[in-house]
């Protein structure tokens, strides 16, 4: 298996997760300044989605085999 086959999947997973985490930070900042309750309530699920996308498993051919 070539390394290039899984690179787009790994990059997209990392980019989506990172953008969601940045969005959660922005919502927390909005929670401090403009909308105190709404910013924090919206930041929690967005942060959870960001962590989920970063930790989501790749398909079978792109998984790293740790059993050796």
Written account of the structure:
By secondary structure, this protein is mainly α. The protein has a domain at 13-55. It has helices spanning 7-33, 36-55. Keywords: Membrane, Transmembrane, Transmembrane helix.
Order of helices and strands: HH
Instruction: Output the structural class.
Output: mainly alpha
Query: What spatial form do the alpha-carbon principal axes imply?
Result: elongated
**Rg for CA atoms:** 16 Å
Low-confidence spans: none
Overall pLDDT confidence: 83
Helicity level, as a percent range? 55-70%
Strand % is under 5%
Oligomer: single chain
Q: Main sheet?
A: none
Number of helices: 2
Strand tally, please? Answer: 0
Could you provide a short overview of the structure?
This protein is mostly helical and about 70 residues long. It is built from 2 helices and no strands. Keywords: Membrane, Transmembrane, Transmembrane helix.
């Amino acid at each position: 298996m070539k390394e290039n086959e899984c690179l787009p999947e790994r990059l997209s997973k990392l980019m989506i997760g990172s953008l969601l985490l940045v969005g959660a930070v922005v919502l927390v900042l909005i929670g401090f300044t403009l909308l105190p309750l709404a910013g924090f309530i919206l930041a929690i699920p967005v942060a959870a989605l960001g962590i989920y996308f970063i930790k989501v498993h790749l398909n079978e051919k792109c998984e790293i085999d740790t059993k050796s």
